[in-house]
Amino acid sequence: MEREEFRIVKSGEHAEVKKVSFEDGYEREINPSKKELLEIVQLVLSKVPR
Known about the structure:
- The chain is of the alpha+beta class.
- The chain is 28% helix and 48% strand.
- The protein contains one helix and three strands, in the order βββα.
- It has one helix at 34-47, and strands at 3-11, 14-23, 26-30.
- It has a three-stranded antiparallel beta sheet with strand order 1-2-3, with no helix packed on it.
- The longest helix is centred in the last third of the chain and has 14 residues, at 34-47.
- The radius of gyration is 13 Å and the shape is globular.
- The mean pLDDT is 86.
């Protein structure tokens, strides 16, 4: 069973999103596609009170 999750890694003033794929019990980080990044940003913004 394949499972994916996204992690936001913050380092000082910078943050990056890592896509983590769990295939065959192994964890590997891959760079998310622009479409996935956009979906994450929209989701986060929708949760922020204005």
